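Collaborator request, handled under Task 6.
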Amino acid sequence: MATKKLLIILGVALLILGTSIGWALAFLWYEPAKKLAAVDFAAAVWPEADVAAILAQTEGYVADMAEAEGLLLASIATAQEEDAKVNQQLAELAKAAKSNKNLSMSVYEEMIVERLGEAIYTHSGTNSEIQIFELEKEDMRGYMAKIKLKTNNALKIVLAPENATSGETTLSAIKRTEAVLGINGGGFGTSGGKQTPLGNTMIEGELINDFLASWNDLAFVGFTKNNKLVGGIYDTEKELLASGAYQGVSFVPVLIQDWEAAKVPSKWANAKQPRTVLGQYPNGDIFFIVVDGRQSTWSNGITLEEMQVLLLRLGVMEAYNLDGGGSSTFVYNNKVLNKPSDGTSRKLPTNIVIMP
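Structure tokens returned to the collaborator:
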């Protein structure tokens, strides 16, 4: 909201400045012309009374411009204060989260579940234990999952079938793989009706295409073979492989690493959107969160900075932003729980599923 106000005020200031300069140039042209005795400019120039009126109007515009400049500077100062408050809050939350490192796992578990609230669904199976929580705040709704992985096969990043060139919905991926829980995966592009995952996508230790160095803040996020969350910006394939990644996808940006909020690039900042985030707790449990958006009567979405604050409050140690917008989908037990902003589930090239 602060950014929109700044843009509006800046636009007004520029409009006033342009108008004032135009009048000033006209007046500067008029004065020398009036003194040329050899040519009768009586019909070509404005009368003195008109010039006086124009000059008075110009002075009014200049005063308005000064007032607009004052408002602009005040708004910039307010925005800077708000950013400083958010940064201070993130730093305090990170410090508090790190202090929990020495807690026993049982105490930490109790603390995290208390912060998440009461589970609306639970699952306990051979591969996973799952707790589903509903997120409901003033203008924001969504769903969260805390997942304990029991086996190395419990979490899978799945590609849409080769014959599904336009992708598959998260619900279709869950039904096809017989999973119990799933969210949408990485970003993608579409050309000629065919979807192509952005950046690097890895399945069972193999990149599906040639390695691509990070660009435009694109980050890789994935898991090692024993389900440790890894990720970041990798400029070489060697760096990516050194992370131990066994499966993963790509999107922007990195949100939290070792309880520290990463700097959100300005081009991605301060915009409320539907979001999907993948995270991990220090005890190895996985965290999914999907926040709906673009629906004023349901949920307006969440900024990446607000998401960072929420994640740190919930004790998440590592977190990465996945594809959002109309892609954001949360499916449990063969049912789409959230309300995708497209009005229907979007077909996607990658999804992340949890086996029962």
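The cover message to the collaborator said: "The mean pLDDT is 84. The chain has two domains: 2-95, 104-354. Please let us know whether this matches your experimental observations."
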